[in-house]
Design brief:
With 255 residues, the chain is α/β, with parallel strands linked by helices. It contains 9 helices and 7 strands; from the N terminus they run H-H-H-E-H-E-H-E-H-E-H-E-H-E-H-E. The chain has a 7-stranded mixed sheet, sandwiched between helices. Helix 7 (159-165) links the parallel strand 4 and strand 5 (176-184).
Length: 255
């Protein structure tokens, strides 16, 4: 017999009962981390009196995640009178691993291809799909104008791709919020995916922090373990990028 909380979660999720906040508490919706990240981005943008904010998904694959992020962003942004821009980055095909750091025993060569790019673009309402090697598309994105980035989901699997995606943090202050919630899909282990700081996304995070040398960093946020209702795995997959030198880093944003 299902426990009452599991049964309630299934009913709420199936019928979409209540607001996003109501469904977020028991995680009775698809990709709760996207709701949480978009909410944090919109909240900080509103407290800093910014008119708009960007949310990003690195690793789009079939597009279900990007469509969910767009849906949540539109709803949350409308509730707070903030325009939200949505961007999805993907190579469009599953590349082969280059060396041991890419965890080839986890990621099959050719997996996660984007089979119907045209249909996905039609289905997106405000989201923009940016296809190509992130080593090239991220610098192009940085060179253009966009709302300050406030939430990022990293799901590129490989160490090298993730490191290239981290170039987003080289943007000027005006294109980044002082603190950016980041979700990493591939840093929690099971009996097969044995993630360590010597390989994969965890290695990318460690290398990035070492390179930043205290100027900024992707930092764990233990206080998230209370108050979000997230399962332990989701809590462990969240990091916060702190831009210590940002002009608004010390701007008061409390209630």
């Amino acid at each position: 017999m299902l426990r009452p909380e599991i049964l309630i979660r299934q009913i709420v999720r199936r019928f979409g009962i209540g607001s996003l906040d109501f469904r977020l508490a028991p995680q009775a919706l698809d990709r709760p981390m996207y709701v949480f990240g978009a909410k944090q981005a919109v909240y900080l943008a509103s407290r800093l009196k910014l008119p708009s904010v960007s949310v990003i998904e690195f690793g789009v694959a079939g597009g279900a995640g990007l469509l969910a992020l767009e849906q949540y962003a539109l709803e949350i942004g409308k509730a707070h009178d903030i325009d939200v821009e949505v961007y999805g980055f993907d190579l469009g095909s599953g590349p082969p691993p280059s060396d041991y750091r890419e965890l080839g025993y986890v990621w099959k060569s050719g997996a996660y291809q984007m089979y119907d790019k045209k249909s996905l673009r039609k289905e997106l309402r405000i989201g923009r799909l940016l296809l190509g090697d992130v080593g090239e598309t991220v610098p192009q994105f940085i060179a253009g104008a966009h709302a300050p980035v406030g939430f990022i989901s990293f799901d590129l699997d490989f160490y090298s791709s993730t490191m290239n995606a981290f170039r987003i943090f080289s943007s000027q202050n005006e294109y980044l919020l002082p603190r950016i919630f980041c979700y990493f899909d591939d840093i929690v282990s099971d009996g097969h995916q044995l993630h360590r700081e010597e390989v994969g996304e965890l290695l990318a995070i460690r290398k990035f922090n070492e390179k930043e040398n205290g100027k900024s960093g992707l930092l764990a946020c233990p206080i998230l373990k209370s108050g979000t209702g997230f399962r332990a795995t989701l809590q462990d997959q969240l990091r916060v990028y702190h831009r210590f030198e940002h002009r608004d880093y010390n701007t008061y944003v409390g209630a």
